[in-house]
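Record copied across here:
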Amino acid sequence: MSNRRIWTAGLALVALLAALLLGGKVSQTAGLSNAGLSVAHAQTPATSAPTQSPVAAPGPAGGSAPGQPAVVPTPGQTPGASPPAQTLGALPISGTFQDPQKRFEIGILETMTVSAAGGNPLFQQPDGNLAYTVAVVPLTPGTTNALPDVALLQAAKDTFGRGEGFQTTGFQAVEGGGLQISWFGRLSQGPTPPKPVSGSILAKQQGNQIFLLLVAALEPSREQVAGAIATLAPTLKVL
C-alpha cells in the first residue's frame, strides 16, 4: 500500500473515532492535532488506567469526555449476550498514556500514534486499520452502588451511538466486573461505498464514573480486536 493510501486510511479511522466521540460525521482531519500532547515510548511492557465522559445513574447516560491527553513512558457468557470476537494473542505495548486530568492511564500499543478529539485520546496504527480510545462517563454525584449491565450498555450507546451506523451486537460479563460489548458501524469516504467497521467496548464502573475503552478496526485488522482488548484491559487503571 502506498504511503498516501496508508495516510488516508489513518485519517479515515481517526475521523470515525472522532465521530463516535463527538457525534455524527466529521472531516477526515478531525482529531489529528497533537497540540498539547507529549508521547514517549518505552521498549518494555507498560501498565495503565481508565476514565471518560458523563451519564446519569442506573439508567441511560450520555455525554462526551473531557481532558487533553499526555503520555509518559512505562516499563513494563451472560444470558442473552453475544460472544466477543475471536481471541488472539496479546499485542506488544510500548508505553503508557496518562490522562492530563489524571483520571486514568492506559497502555500504548506498539507503533500507535496518539492524537485527541473532544478531550479524548485517540490511538491509531500507521496503516489506519486499528485504533482505540477511552471515554469517561460521570455518573450522578453520590452514585456508588454497582450499576446493572443494562446501565453500562446504555452508557456505551449514549456515548458512541451517534457515530455513523453504530450498533451494538451483543455483550458479555467480564470477570472482576464490567461488560464487553461488540459493535459495528460504517465509515464513509467521499463517493466510495461505506466501509464496514467493527470492534469491541470494555465498560467498567469505578465509583461514580464509567470508563469506556473502545477498539475499532477496518476489515484487514478485524481479528486484532480481541487481542487489543485483552492486552489493553489490564493496563486501564484509575488514578
